Amino acid sequence: MTNEYRHIPVLLPECLEYLNLQPQHTFVDATLGGAGHSVEAAKAVGARGTLIGIDQDPAALAAAQTRLSRLPEGVRPNVHLLRGNFGDLDNLLLQLEIPSIDAILFDIGVSSVQIDTPARGFSFKETAPLDMRMDPGNQTLTAAEIVNHYSAADLTRIIRTYSDERWASRIAEFIVEAREREPFATSDQLVDVIKAAIPARARRAGGHPAKRTFQALRIEVNGELDVLSKGIDAAIRWLAPGGRIAVISYHSLEDRIVKDSFAEASRGCTCPPDLPVCVCGNVPVLNVVTRKPVVPTADEIERNPRARSAKLRVAEKLPL
Q1: What rounded mean pLDDT belongs to the chain?
Q2: pLDDT digits (tens, 9 = 90+) for 226-280
Q3: Neighbour-count burial for 14-46, b at 16+ CB within 10 Å, e otherwise
Q4: Nearest one of 93, 120, 114 to 33, comparing CA atoms
């Protein structure tokens, strides 16, 4: 595997425990990356199992293919690697003509590899083109397009909504003023404007001042919250009875979508209590396994600081 895709899978032992993978199971890694989770999942499902990996990034798929191919034949499951976004999970799984899946993992957000590759434009610490597309071959909207063409009101909305940035409106105003002098092309241009927009006293706490704005732009570029909801809904439909879905999120907006999706799918009758019989017909399809999110241990955070904000939620498909 190339150096580019050597990274540490987050909450790996916890994921394996909660997914309860068994020999012959069909496991889907909806965010394959470099196969950090999938290599260990492959050992659990074994040679009679099936592993399906999904990723938008062809470099990730190539690295994962190399890593999975190194597993011994007696351990390596039937592997299918698919290029695509998990928001299109229905169509991706239909390609394989499988009846159902036994477990699926979503590790949401940008990967360490994407952050550490300057040309991808995700990092506020490097000088790079303002891109932030997870699938450059199929996406046209870039972060540069957003900061150069969105109105101040729209910039304020996405920065505030997707990052809880208290200085969203001020940052948006500074962006609009700056682009009239010179269009934004690189990440360092945007970082300088963000720093100028945030008062000095506010910049002294809370990490890098551009972190929240860059997060908001990335979410807007990739439509991350919409595809997350679609992906979770599709995954629940594809799960076999007793099958499990696990989702690792990294900020409150993602975690709220996961929590609400699981809650909705686990809700039973919603009729008023004074009705003698149920007329809504609503039946639960999930049992939430983790009432509170599972978070990394202090030891894991020390080994991998990027795991600090991770939250894992797991649910199980109920019998029909």
Answers
A1: 91
A2: 899 999 999 999 999 999 999 999 989 999 999 999 999 999 888 888 888 888 8
A3: bbbebbbbeeebbbbbbbbbbbbbbbebbbbbb
A4: 114
Q: How confident is the model at residue 207 (pLDDT cuts 50, 70, 90)?
A: confident
Opening angle at CA 143, ends 139 and 145, nearest 5: 85
Quick one: how many helices (H) and strands (E) in the chain? 14, 7
Where in 155-273 does DSSP place strands (E)?
239-249
Residue 296, exposed/middle/buried by CB under 10 A (0-12, 13-18, 19+)? buried
Cα–Cα separations (whole angstroms), residue 103 to 22, 34, 176, 302: 10, 19, 46, 29
Token pair listed for 86: 């998990």
Q: Which residues pair with 29 in a beta bridge?
A: 53, 105
Segment 42-51, tens digit of pLDDT: 999 999 999 9
